[in-house]
């Protein structure tokens, strides 16, 4: 069994592919927030995917299996810190379906995202936002060398 990681470009994009990524995003929402995405949320995510693919400041990688089925995806973007007047990388989403977890698929996606951030944009800071109750994600990110920096409080 081999896993393939692919950078999505404008030439790769079609409605079926975008819908598959949105469905994976929905699976992630069900796992982490116990709720399904509404139609308007799905449309917003699809628009965000299209923007990332068309922008030089966003990127999407997909992971596929031998049958060319999408088994995961990762997204990153470049943000501007206005206080320090610098760019930084942000990993926005990483998701791998449960049957392919613990097989280094997420790690490979993250490696490609980090390489894109470093090579294409020469940034030295990387941010990832993780729900404090998502122990699986917290363990993953700490396991690859990221450290907790601060807690964000919200009224949700």
UniProtKB/TrEMBL annotation:
Coiled coil: none annotated. It is an enzyme of class 2 (transferase). InterPro entries: Acyl_CoA_acyltransferase, GNAT_dom. PROSITE patterns: GNAT (PS51186). This is GNAT family N-acetyltransferase. Its EC number is 2.3.1.-. The keyword Transferase applies. Keywords: Acyltransferase, Transferase. It comes from Lysinibacillus xylanilyticus. GO terms for molecular function: acyltransferase activity. It comes from the Bacteria.
């Amino acid at each position: 069994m081999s896993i393939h990681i692919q950078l999505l470009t404008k030439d790769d994009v079609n409605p079926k592919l975008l819908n598959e990524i949105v469905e994976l995003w929905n699976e992630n929402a069900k796992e982490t927030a116990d709720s399904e995405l509404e139609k308007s949320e799905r449309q917003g995510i699809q628009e965000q995917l299209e923007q990332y693919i068309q922008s030089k400041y966003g990127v999407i990688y997909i992971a596929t299996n031998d049958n060319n089925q999408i088994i995961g995806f990762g997204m990153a973007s470049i943000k501007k810190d206005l206080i320090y007047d610098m760019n930084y990388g942000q990993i926005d989403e990483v998701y791998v379906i449960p049957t392919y977890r613990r097989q280094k698929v997420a790690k490979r996606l993250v490696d490609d995202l980090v390489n894109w951030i470093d090579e294409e944009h020469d940034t030295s800071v990387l941010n990832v936002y993780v729900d404090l109750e998502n122990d699986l994600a917290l363990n993953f990110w700490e396991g690859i060398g990221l450290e907790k920096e601060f807690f964000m409080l919200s009224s949700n």
